[in-house]
Amino acid sequence: MPVVIDESKCNGCNKCVTICTTDVLVPNPIKGKPPIVMYPEECWYAGCCVGECPVGCITLRFPLMSRVHYKDKETGEIKRV
Amino acid sequence: MNYEDYVTQYGPMEWPYPVLYDKENAVETDILVLGGGPAGCMAAISAAKKGLKVALLDKAYPKRSGGGSGFDHWLNTPNPLTKVTAENCVEWEEATYNGYSNSLSRYIAAREAYDTLLEIEKMGGKIRDLDDDFAGAPFRDEKTKFLFCYDYENKFQFRVWGATFKPAIFNECLRLGVQVFDRVVATSLLNEGGKEGGRIVGATAFNMRTGEFYVFKAKATIHAMSRHQRNWMFSTELTGLDSFTPNITGDGPAILWRAGAELTQMERSRPSQAPGYEYPSYGTGNWMNTWHPASMVDANGKEIPWVDVNGNPLKTVDERSLPRPGQKFLAERSDHPLYGRCSPVKDLVQRINKGEFILPLYADLASMPWYERKAIWGLMVGNEGRTKVGIKMGYEAAGFDASKHMLQGYMTLGGEPYNNPDRSLWQSVFRQEGFGSAGTTVADWDLKTSLDALYVVGDAIMCGNYWYHAATTGRYAGRKAAEYALRQGMPTIDHKQVEKEKTRVYAPTIRKPGVDYIDWKELRAVGARTLQNYCGGLRNEGLMKTGLKWVQDIKEKEFPQTYASNPHILLRVLETYNILTVDEIIFQACMARRASSAVLGHTRQDYPEMDPPEWHKFITLKQVDGTTVIGDLPIGFWGNLAENYETHNPGYKGWMTKKR
């Protein structure tokens, strides 16, 4: 899933639904409940939903094959984001 | 929760919005703006300031749509701190792209970009380092607190907090009473009397959530729907990652084509890599654009030397952003000796192949002076489109620290959305439309298209791109369209043209999902493959004829079998029709240019000579009575820039006018 919603924090305001530029999200038919991630494959990872969320309950999650590696200069250890 | 989870837990889920395919809304306005990116919003603001009634349509909510997640550089802007002139701002691009740039719109933009920037600042866009985060940095002007990039001596390319711009200009639209129709997508332009090539009197559109139909009638219309994209690239699983901006699906060129407008540059493309394999844009270690002038090291920590445009080695990081003796200034995307930026060694790929540098490479911001590290990671990565949340915040949350860690580069392994420096990959069948100088609509000094009452802005203009150009040409064309509209009465709409379009738009909703209906993704995939196989890195007449026939067959035989189960899918189906339409235009333009061209990325086996002088011109094409008419425009068709600009803008008051 491209966006992970912490359903315990979400207040169902649907601001993320309004701001999403590709309509990945749609409102939950049950009012006040978290939105439905209807078209996850159409997400282009702009993160506008995260920026708009008033309670900070959305995390953007890049697909695994798009996770970039980085190297610690001191230890040489290689990690990934 | 995704759709499947909802259905499992609560049972069948209906489409959450009312479906109103039968509803028709009629809207009358002075100015109609199609597209709510920076150019569309600035055009709307400009026209509204003239006291006109303005309606603006966008596929999404314009607060963040169309370049709304951010941008990093505001380029090519003469200003009180530089000697670089408006003429300079167009000359580097003409030289770099062998004439295939648009000095007309670039010159307009250069003349008014500083005025536009200051205007956006008043609306709430952050353009100065007011918090003194970069005090003492060599790219900062201590008095104005402006930050610059690429060339610290000739300060005409600004570093800005671009993520603040779009909400600011969208709020200004609302403040000025612009009527905003979000999620309303244009499907066609309406010609006077319904005749292709006739004056534009409005447009049809539909709402991608409710499906309701709109008929807009306007005295003047502004095309702000960008260019074409996604013609070679499609992956069914990650459609959102196929391209730079997924809402750009060539609706603009396709709609203009059907209305009879003149297009150009449709044969231009550049190499790319297979769709779905990209890493996040600006999210890997590299040295270009947003990451300029990052230090790079190899797997063993060996630094990749930086050189000037002529290959002479540079000793310090600061030297990377200063012109060398004999150079006029350093320009963002140039490799021309007079303007070319510094870069890592030109033969990097060959040196890697010989084993001098061991893969993978890393961007080593930690070794750079604090101001460069902070500018790249924090200001540029942080404001450039899609970098704030996913990359800046996301990577840091995962533990990345730019002062301790090096981010891996993937360029020579494939995977970045830039031209790979390995030229052996440049004949790839996977191609991108000529990103960087890609717009396709022919326009005059009023930024009016070949169709009366239709104006064009931003990336939709031939060779147009960049935020500064979008915002400034939008502001300019909004003014011009308003001046035109003030002289016009309200036109009449041809209802037959509306009814015909309505039938086309809703056809996919009327069909029932039969046993052999076709999914929009399948059609996009075959459209992309057609271009990959028949209009890839190497082309000839026979290949392209076959490809064109294949696309036409699909449009005629298979497209009518598509089915849309809700308004969202209807949008994707109609976008696909536009993509296939643009595919046809691309094939015809590529066949019309019977010569190879390096800049245009057009290599023909049957005409191998690269850029012969008799083909040094823009090829244009338009539809007349349903038949394609090919024409051309000479390079330099814009004539004397200053003279023409001033003749067309005698009353304009701006920073540069005052200076004179």
Description:
The complex is a heterodimer of chains A (81) and B (660). With 81 residues, chain A is α+β, with helices and mostly antiparallel strands. Chain A contains two helices and six strands; from the N terminus they run E-H-E-E-H-E-E-E. Chain A has helices at 15-19, 48-52; strands spanning 3-5, 25-26, 36-37, 58-60, 69-72, 78-80. In chain A, the strands form three sheets. A two-stranded antiparallel sheet of chain A has the order 1-4. Chain A starts with a strand and ends with a strand. Chain B has helices at residues 3-10, 38-49, 86-96, 103-123, 165-175, 251-259, 348-354, 370-376, 388-397, 467-485, 495-510, 520-534, 541-558, 567-592, 641-648, 655-659, and strands at residues 24-34, 54-58, 73-74, 147-148, 158-159, 179-182, 184-191, 200-207, 213-223, 263-264, 269-271, 296-297, 306-307, 343-344, 362-363, 405-408, 431-433, 454-456, 617-624, 627-634. The N and C termini of chain B lie far apart (61 Å). Chain B contains 16 helices and 20 strands. In chain B, strands 1, 2, 6, 7, 8, 9 and 18 form a seven-stranded mixed sheet that branches. In chain B, strands 3-5-4 form a three-stranded antiparallel sheet, with no helix packed on it. With 660 residues, chain B is of the alpha+beta class. Chains A and B meet through strand 3, helix 2 and strand 5 of A and helix 1, helix 9 and strand 16 of B.
Topology:
The complex is a heterodimer of chains A (81) and B (660).
Chain A: E1 3-5, H1 15-19, E2 25-26, E3 36-37, H2 48-52, E4 58-60, E5 69-72, E6 78-80
Antiparallel strand pairs in A: 1-4, 2-3, 5-6
Chain B: H1 3-10, E1 24-34, H2 38-49, E2 54-58, E3 73-74, H3 86-96, H4 103-123, E4 147-148, E5 158-159, H5 165-175, E6 179-182, E7 184-191, E8 200-207, E9 213-223, H6 251-259, E10 263-264, E11 269-271, E12 296-297, E13 306-307, E14 343-344, H7 348-354, E15 362-363, H8 370-376, H9 388-397, E16 405-408, E17 431-433, E18 454-456, H10 467-485, H11 495-510, H12 520-534, H13 541-558, H14 567-592, E19 617-624, E20 627-634, H15 641-648, H16 655-659
Parallel strand pairs in B: 1-2, 1-9, 2-6, 9-18
Antiparallel strand pairs in B: 3-5, 4-5, 7-8, 8-9, 10-19, 11-17, 12-15, 13-14, 15-16, 19-20
